[in-house]
Amino acid sequence: MNDDVRNIVLGVVAAGISAALGWIARTYLWRRKLRRKQAFFGLPDNSESLLVVNRGAAGPEFAVMRYDVFALLELAALIKDCNAHAQILPHDTARQGFGERTEFCVGGPASNRRMAAHLSSLLPGVRVNVDAEPSPDRGSFLVGSERYRVESGKEEYALLARLTAERSQHTRPVFLFCGQTSITNQATTRYLARHHERLARKYGNNSFVLLLKVINSQAYGPDVVEMVADVTRAAQTPLPAAATAAPRNSHRAS
């Protein structure tokens, strides 16, 4: 074997080793990223999850608002990326505990009984005005001592929460997407889809509650969302009796 042939062979071998090492490194990084995502969502390979949705106010028995359907599609893509499976349940048929399977609950308490139960038991510092009669506070959020009113199409709020049951033997989380309007439900799921890596780095597998604001949805749809505050502590602290009647501050679009 002359020098030229030897150099060619060595070059081919070196290229093959480099390609193999590169493939191994990329595969390792991809798997590590996937495992972190699965841990954050509580969705190991081939696991089952629940998508709990509210029924529409009119239409067939199992009718879902258009933007809530879009929210389900956002979540379905996340679940598929984790190599997991989803079961869709109407809010009034999901009569079971939580923690055994990851749950994604979409919709406000006025149209989603499951959401109302979660807010009552897991977030005692949150009140959502569900009065049917028109008033300035209709649909507003009370979080601790702060009230957040809705101005439809201009400034609307939503809660994004990842919660686990501390005293349960099951550790799968429940994710809440509680918006003041249907489009804010989709905006909240889209926010999670876009920022779950950052949230996982910040919170790990711990519980959190974020207050989001959807800006000018009548023009921008669910795309322009900003985080107002991390309200985990306020949301998990029971409200004093007087706070519901007389919140200290109110927030309204100007």
TrEMBL record:
Transmembrane segments: 6-29
Keyword vocabulary terms for this entry: Membrane, Transmembrane, Transmembrane helix
Name of the protein described by the UniProt record: Secreted protein
